[in-house]
């Protein structure tokens, strides 16, 4: 379990009423959440408290992540991080991980992109605990296109053949995601800011919430779009993401029992209880997401950006409903009814595809080839360590 600072006994002031939380979700969950509010990632955080320069750390870390191995010359802090990442595979059924990969690839990347962009990220930005920090980096508002491309590139890397294994692209990029989180925490904490309102920056609770934004939220969203993976497919995908969760530093016990959409519901409800209400930072990020997602979709499809914005706004409403879309001032799209009418056809085609093993295999291969063609080192977290700036209150 991740370490927590001395103020870990304090329930953050903006996380709602602790007694009300206990009445709804129990003492045990309240105690674990309180630890998670303050828990971070000791192995990754140690990279920036080692006394070595950022350049020295990052040079050695890139080499270690690319190989998945440590050598006699690897700095101890880097070796500890790599060894912790390798422990993510202890006791893991790699055949089941592969089934999860193939289940993911049975759905086109563009549909996943909608579920993870207008779907997951709108949900990510709804809590000030995350939204304020992301706006402070300046990267997700001032550089939305670039940062969304980094996240998309990382996700693609997880689902290519061998991507998660030590030395694979998914392993490498996951290590950089983890390192970037530690870098942001270091910059914020070095300013001596007061975190009594929400807890530690990029805490274990925040990371768990984000993990659900790559599991529960997109697959619930895909259902609204007509994609209905069966129970086994969903459980295999969640199983794969549990490995990813460990790779990026989430405490394993926080993900325990979160095996599919239904089993994750109570945990997500508990997280929503302590989320707070969306604020201006949430609105700014949703606005930047719409712009960034359209720009990235235009690069892939070459369709007019005006049409893609209509398409994006329609999917925000389809996935989240009118109440959420209205709260973020997302315009009503004229193509919304057309997309909604096509949902049944999407479901029928997907069911027919899975009933034909040869057709399914061909679809998976096609989608895998698309991921491979879209992967690039030019838009990856590997490029960002020293260029990240953080704007924090004086």
Automatic annotation (TrEMBL):
GO terms assigned for molecular function: oxidoreductase activity
Domain of life: Bacteria
Pfam families: MPAB_Lcp_cat
Domain ER-bound oxygenase mpaB/mpaB'/Rubber oxygenase catalytic: from-to ranges: 127-333
Record-given protein name: ER-bound oxygenase mpaB/mpaB'/Rubber oxygenase catalytic domain-containing protein
Organism: Neomicrococcus aestuarii
């Amino acid at each position: 379990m991740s370490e927590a600072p001395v103020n870990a006994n304090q329930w953050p002031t903006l996380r709602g009423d602790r007694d009300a939380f206990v009445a709804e979700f129990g003492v045990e969950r309240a105690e674990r959440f309180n630890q998670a509010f303050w828990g971070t990632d000791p192995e990754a955080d140690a990279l920036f408290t080692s006394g070595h320069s950022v350049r020295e750390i990052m040079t050695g870390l890139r080499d270690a992540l690319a190989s998945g191995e440590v050598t006699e010359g690897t700095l101890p802090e880097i070796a500890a991080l790599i060894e912790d990442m390798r422990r993510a595979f202890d006791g893991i059924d790699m055949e089941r991980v592969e089934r999860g990969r193939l289940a993911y690839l049975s759905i086109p990347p563009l549909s996943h992109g909608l579920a993870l962009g207008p779907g997951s990220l709108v949900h990510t930005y709804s809590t000030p605990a995350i939204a304020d920090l992301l706006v402070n980096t300046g990267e997700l508002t001032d550089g939305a296109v670039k940062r969304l491309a980094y996240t998309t590139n990382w996700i693609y890397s997880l689902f290519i053949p061998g991507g998660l294994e030590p030395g694979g692209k998914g392993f490498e990029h996951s290590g950089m995601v983890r390192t970037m989180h530690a870098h942001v925490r270091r910059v914020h904490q070095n300013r001596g800011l007061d975190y009594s309102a929400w807890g530690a920056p990029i805490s274990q609770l925040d990371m768990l919430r984000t993990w659900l934004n790559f599991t529960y939220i997109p697959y619930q969203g895909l259902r609204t779009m007509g994609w209905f993976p069966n129970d086994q497919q969903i459980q295999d995908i969640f199983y794969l993401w549990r490995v990813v969760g460990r790779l990026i530093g989430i405490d394993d016990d926080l993900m325990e029992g979160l095996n599919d959409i239904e089993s994750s519901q109570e945990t997500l409800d508990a997280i929503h209880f302590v989320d707070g209400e969306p604020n201006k930072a949430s609105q700014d990020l949703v606005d930047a997401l719409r712009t960034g997602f359209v720009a990235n979709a235009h690069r892939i499809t070459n369709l007019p950006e005006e049409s893609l914005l209509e398409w994006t706004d329609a999917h925000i409403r389809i996935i989240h409903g009118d109440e959420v879309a209205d709260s973020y001032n997302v315009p009503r799209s004229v193509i919304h009814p057309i997309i909604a009418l096509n949902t049944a056809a999407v479901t029928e085609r997907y069911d027919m595809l899975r009933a034909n093993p040869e057709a399914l295999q061909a679809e998976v291969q096609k989608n895998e080839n698309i991921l491979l063609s879209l992967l690039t080192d030019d838009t990856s977290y590997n490029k960002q360590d020293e260029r990240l700036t953080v704007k924090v209150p004086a």
